[in-house]
Design a protein that fits this description.
Layout lengths: L1 H4 L4 H12 L4 H8 L3 H22 L7 E9 L16 E8 L4 E6 L4 H11 L5 E4 L14 E4 L8 E2 L2 E2 L1 H15 L6 H16 L5 H13 L1
Parallel strand pairs: 1-4, 4-5
Antiparallel strand pairs: 1-2, 2-3, 6-7
Helix pairs in contact: 2-3, 2-8, 3-4, 4-7, 4-8, 6-7
């Protein structure tokens, strides 16, 4: 990052942060800032690395709130007859979202109980209300000390009072809408892109430009 900054004027660097913050494509940002598109991509990648590191160091632990858990599948080719948990070649992302709060994402190898339950226990305090669908990996949440509410989507039971997973479904929708514009993301870089979605969602009530600018300033200090 420090070496890259030396290659552009301070005003252009600031405009690159603004373009990134406002989700301006690299092609459009190149025209706005007056630099090469490859240069924009290099800066954008550096900003994503800063966001990724900040999200990992921030930590995430829920206490005394209602939350929702779910997994979502990104990328890969659709295979006829297989979708969702049966899909092939996709990146699996496990997510936790607080009602009116923050989101947490983690790429996982599978959706088995042995994979998901330890993540939940490390991120959500016991006695919290946890909403999920009927996936078998969540069967032991109640015995683990959580107030577990389950929604049977196949039975058209989508919402009833505080019993729903609408918040995390909306979060997944937001992530996929953002990521679709890239027309495919390399799996090696996907972790940075999903953490960027997480970061933007968690800072949705703030001035995202100022938030990213502070990250950059902290990194350079």
């Amino acid at each position: 990052m420090k070496n890259l900054i030396m290659k552009v004027e301070p005003s252009k660097f600031d405009n690159l942060i603004k373009c990134f913050a406002h989700d301006v494509t690299a092609t459009a940002a190149a025209k706005i800032v007056g630099v090469n598109r490859n240069t924009v991509n290099r800066y954008y990648n550096e900003f994503r690395k800063l966001i990724y590191d900040s999200q990992l160091s921030e930590g995430y632990h829920i206490k005394n709130v209602i939350c929702e858990v779910d997994e979502s599948y990104f990328g890969g080719k659709r295979i006829r007859g297989k979708s969702g948990r049966g899909a092939s070649g996709k990146v699996i992302v496990f997510g936790i979202v607080e009602r009116d709060g923050k989101a947490y994402t983690q790429i996982v190898e599978n959706c088995k109980e042995a994979t998901l339950i330890p993540i939940i226990e490390s991120r959500i305090a016991k006695n919290c209300v946890v909403n999920s669908d009927m996936w078998k990996a969540y069967d032991k949440l109640r015995s683990k000390g959580y107030f577990h509410m389950r929604i049977n989507h196949s039975g058209d039971s989508f919402a009833s009072g505080i019993k729903h997973t609408n918040t995390i479904e909306n979060f997944w929708g937001y992530c996929k809408m953002r990521l679709n514009k890239f027309h495919g993301i390399c799996k090696l870089n996907f972790n940075q892109h999903i953490k960027e979605c997480e970061y933007r969602y968690n800072h949705r009530s703030e001035d995202i430009y100022e938030s990213i600018k502070m990250l950059v300033k902290k990194h350079l200090s």
